[in-house]
Amino acid sequence: MKDALLSIENLNKTYISGLIRVKETHAAKNVTFNIGHGEVVSLVGESGSGKSTVANIILRLFPPTSGSVLLSGKDVNELPKKKYYKQVQGIFQDPYSSYNYFYKVDHVLNQAISKSLSWVNMAEKKKVISKVLDVVGLDPKETLGRFPHQLSGGQLQRILIARCLLFRPRLLIADEPTSMIDACARAEILNLLLKLKEQSRISLLFITHDIGQAQYISDRVFVMSKGEIVESGDTNEVFLNPTEDYTKNLLNSVPSIYRKWS
Amino acid sequence: MLEEENNTILKVEHLAGYYRGSFGVVHAVDDVSFTVNTGDIVAIAGESGCGKSSLAELLTGVPISLLHYEAGQVYIRDTTMYVPKPTPKLKKSQIKLRRKLETQGIKISPNDERFEPKLDRSKRKEWKKVSKKRRDYIRKEILCKEIGYVPQASQDSLNPVKRIKNFILDVMDQRLGGHLKEKKDKNNPESMNVEENPLDRVIEHFSTIGLDETVLNKYPHELSGGMKQRTVIGISTLWNPNLLIVDEPTSALDVTTQKLLLETFIDLKKSGILETILIISHDIPTLYQICDKAIIMYAGKIVETGTMDEIINDPLHPYTMGLVHSIASFNPDGSAETKLLGIPGRPPNLRDPPIGCRFYPRCPKRLPKCKENYPPDFYPKGEKRPVTCWLYE
To answer: Residue B32, class by beta-carbon neighbours within 10 Å (0-12 exposed, 13-18 middle, 19+ buried)?
Structure first.
C-alpha cells in the first residue's frame, strides 16, 4: 500500500539465550502489516504471542533481527530519533510505573513540552498543557500540582495520553493501555482513544489480549499466535466469520455477557 | 422452615473488619450480611479496592495479620467463626468530665476522642485469649476440611525448591498433626492409622479435576500458570471441603487457560467433591459463565444481590448499571455498537467514609437525601433481590 502511514515488512525478531546451549526464541516471524491514516488497528493474541515485541520494535526500543519498518515510505532506522518520536508515541500497560513518585505529575508534561515546543515561553506552555488536559477529559486545576499517588490509574493513564498529544503524533502505539485499570475507567479510556481518532485523525495501533475491547475499538484486526499473524482483516469479518482454527478456538473461549458456554 | 435452615452453608451477619496502620484506620468491610445456600456458585464482584478480598479473608476466620475483625458473625453451618467483642463502656471519669462540661455549657462534638468508650484492659485480654483459641481451632478443624480458601496469586505460593508431591506431603503432614512423617511406631496407635501410600488419594483426586499424574513429579517452574492454579485448587480441595472460596482465580491467565480452569470448577462440582463455590473477581463476563448468584460490592458494602442474569440484564443499583455498561465484552453475533459508558470519579476514601450513600459523589441518579442517609435494603423485585438505594423506597 502506497498511502499507508506505517508499514511493516517481513519483521523478524529472535531472542537468543544461553551461553553454551544456545536457545532461540522466535518472538516475531515474518510479520507484515500496515496502518493507514486515521485508522485503528488491533493486534490481538494471548500472552507470549509476540504482540509487545512488535510494539517495541515500532517504538524503536530495540532493533529487529531482520525486516523493516517504514513510516510514510521511509525506513525508520534512518530517521533521527528526535524526529521520529514527534510522529510516533507510545502508551504502556502500567501507568503507575511511568511516573517518578517524588515529582508532581506536571513533571512528565513539562519534560515533554520542553522537547516539543522549546521555543515558546512559559505562559504559552502552560496554556498548551491545560488545553491538552482538556482534550483528555481532565480538569487542569484538579490535576496539575498533584502527586501520582493522589490520582487513580485511569487519571494517570489519561495524563500519559495527554503527554503524547503534546507532540501532535500521527501514530499512537497503545500496548495494553487498559489492562491495569478498573472496568469503569477502562470504558472512558477506550472512548477517549476513539475520540482522538475521530477529531485529530491519529492512527492507533491497539495491542490487547481482550477480544471485547478490540472489537469495540478497532477497524481492522490482526490475530497473532507464536510470533506469526494467523488471521487479519476487518474487525467484523474476523470476529464473526473466523476462518482459521486458532481464531475459532480463541473466540470460543472468550467469556462474554452475551452468551453462556453451556 | 427447618429444611431451609439446613440448606444454608454460610451465613454472614453484619460483618465488619478494618486495617490499622500508621496511615490510620481503614474500614475495608463494613456491615456486610448475606447467606449462601448449598449447591450455589456465588460471585462477589466490584471495582478494585471495594473490599472483596478483605471480605474473603474475614470469611476464613483467620484473616491476615493487618486485617482485624471488628464486629458481626460468620456461621459455617453451625460453627461460629468469631468470638464477639464485648461492648465497650464509658469510664466513670469520662462520665464525670462530660457532666462537668455540660454544666459549663460547652458543646461536645460526637467525634471527641475524650469521650470514646474504651474496653477494660482485663476484658480485652480475656477476649484476645478466647479468640486466639478459636483461631487455633479453626486452623485445625475448619480450614481445608469445611472451607477451602485459595487466596489471590496463590499459584506463586508453591514451594519452588520442592517437587509438587513433596509439597503436598508437607501439607498433608501438617493437616494430620505430624503423623504422616513419623516412623510407624507399634506403641503409638495413632501412627498406625496413616494410610499406606497417601499419594494414591492425591492421584485419584487430581485425575477428577483433569490433572495428569506426572504433575506430581515436577517442580513449580516447570508448570504453566494455568496448571499451577489448577494444582493449587486441587490441593485446597483434597479434604473435600463443603465450601470453596477462590480469590481472583483467572486474573493472570489467558482466555483459553481461563476456560480450562472454569471447567475444573464445574468438574469439581459435578463429581460431588465440592458443593458450594464462592468466586471473587472483577471480571464479570467470566463470572457470568459459571455463577448462579452475584453479590456486587462498593466501598466496603454490598449494594445489590441477585441472580447473575438479573444483575447483567436488569441491574437496579446505579453503580451496578455503570459497572455493567462499562464492560467491553465480546459480542459473537455482531459488532458491539452500543457505546460504552464509564463511571467518572473514583471510589471514596475508606479512612473516613461519607455518612450517606457511598456512591453519592459519582451517582448519575442521586437524590438530595442520599447525601445524609445511608439507604437500607429495599426489595423492589422480590425478597431475594435486595438493593441499597433510595430510588426504590
So the answer is: buried
Which CATH number applies to A6-252? 3.40.50.300
pLDDT in tens, chain B (393 residues): 444 556 889 999 999 999 988 878 888 998 899 999 998 999 999 888 888 999 999 999 888 888 999 899 999 888 888 998 888 877 888 888 888 888 888 777 776 777 777 788 888 899 999 999 999 888 888 888 888 999 888 888 899 999 998 998 888 887 777 666 655 555 555 555 555 677 888 888 888 888 888 989 999 998 888 889 889 988 888 888 889 999 988 887 888 888 888 888 888 888 888 889 999 998 898 999 999 999 999 999 999 999 999 999 899 999 999 998 888 888 877 655 578 888 888 888 888 888 889 999 889 888 898 888 899 999 998 888 999 999 988
Q: Tell me, yes or no, if A158 comes closer than 8 A to chain B by beta carbon.
A: no
Residues 6 or more apart from A108 whose CB is under 8 A from it?
A: A98, A99, A159, A160, A163
* B323 interface with A at CB cutoff 8 Å: yes
Which positions ≥6 away from A116 have C-beta within 8 Å? A86, A166, A167, A168
Cβ count within 10 A of residue B178: 10
CB contact under 8 A, B344 and A211: no
Q: Do the Cβ atoms of A210 and B325 come closer than 8 Å?
A: no
Phi-psi region of A201 (alpha: psi -120 to 50; beta: other; left: phi over 0): left
Cα torsion through B102, B106, B112, B114, rounded to 10 = -60
CB contact under 8 A, A188 and B342: yes
Please report the domains of chain B, with CATH numbers, ordered by start residue.
2-77+146-161+219-392 (3.40.50.300)
List B15's β-bridge partners, or say none: B32
Q: CB B330 to CB A184 under 8 A?
A: no
Return the pLDDT at B2: 45
β partners of residue B36: B10
Distance from CA of A157 to the nearest CA of B (A): 14
Give first-to-last CA distance, chain A, whole Å: 44
Q: Which of B231, B222, B223, B230 is nearest to B260 (CA)?
A: B230
Strand partners, B246: B150, B279
Whole-number Cα distances in Å, A80 to A14, A54, A85, A138, B99: 25, 20, 9, 33, 79
Residue of B nearest to A262 (CA): B289
Sort out which chain A residues have CB atoms less than 8 A from B342's CB and list them. Answer: 184-188, 191
Find which of B259, B330, B337, B362 to mutate to test the A interface (most A CBs within 10 Å of its CB): B330
The pLDDT of residue A222 is 94
Tell me whether residues B340 and A191 touch, CB distance under 8 A.
Answer: yes
Q: Which of B340, B341, B359 has the highest number of chain A CBs within 10 A, making it the mutation to test binding with A?
A: B340
Residue B309 Cα distances to B287, B289, B294, angstroms: 11, 10, 9
CB of B288 within 8 Å of a chain A CB? The answer is: yes
Considering only CB atoms, which chain B residues are within 8 Å of A190? 328, 340
Residues 172-211 of chain A with CB under 8 A from chain B are: 182-188, 190-191, 209-211
B108 CB contacts (<8 Å, ≥6 apart)? B98, B101, B102, B115
Cβ-Cβ contacts under 8 Å, B284 against chain A: 183, 257
